[in-house]
Amino acid sequence: RLTDCFTLSCVFEMDTTPESYLDLFPLEAIVYLTPDSENGRLLEDIDPSKVYVLGGLVDESIHKQLTLRRAREQRLRTARLPIREYMVRAPNARNYHCETLAINQVFDVLCTFYETRSWPAALRAGVSPGKGYVLPEAAEQ
């Protein structure tokens, strides 16, 4: 099931509401974050005037394209985290590489980026090595 709507700031203030983000914010202010964002749409910076929706599921399995389809249905702009741009695939026994993160990992990435303005620092904070991606300097070791 898709997660409930909430807004946040990196001082960890959170407001919850049963209302949809579609009813609370203008469509042009919403950026739906999904690992399946099309045409290489990257989240390059965090704009305080935008509302970022963390597209996700409360589920153990990965449903490809589900969050992208949801964003398309709602006619929302999408973006993805720049994992491929700042990280490399780490060799591992299972040949496993996944850019899909849990909601708390995306939250950690966004908050760390907002505080440091550094994608490498942010991705280090939120992308666990178990996802099969590491920063280039970690791959060299």
Give a short overview:
The protein is an alpha/beta fold and 141 residues long. It contains six helices and seven strands; from the N terminus they run E-E-H-E-E-H-E-H-E-H-H-E-H.
Structure description:
- The chain has 141 residues and is α/β, with parallel strands linked by helices.
- It has one domain (5-134): Alpha/beta knot (3-Layer(aba) Sandwich), CATH 3.40.1280.
- Helix content is 30%, strand content 16%.
- The protein has 6 helices and 7 strands.
- It has helices spanning 21-24, 66-73, 83-86, 103-116, 119-126, 136-140, and strands spanning 6-9, 13-16, 30-33, 51-54, 77-79, 88-89, 133-134.
- The strands form 3 sheets. It has a 3-stranded parallel beta sheet with strand order 4-3-5. A two-stranded antiparallel ribbon has the order 1-2.
- A hairpin with a 3-residue loop joins β1 (6-9) and β2.
- α4 (103-116) runs antiparallel to α5 (119-126).
- The longest helix is centred in the last third of the chain and has 14 residues, at 103-116.
- The radius of gyration is 15 Å and the shape is globular.
- The relative contact order is 0.17.
- Residues 1-9 have low confidence and may be disordered.
- GO terms for molecular function: tRNA (guanosine(9)-N1)-methyltransferase activity; tRNA binding.
- InterPro entries: MT_TRM10-typ, MT_TRM10-typ_sf, tRNA_m1G_MeTrfase_euk.
- This is tRNA (guanine(9)-N(1))-methyltransferase.
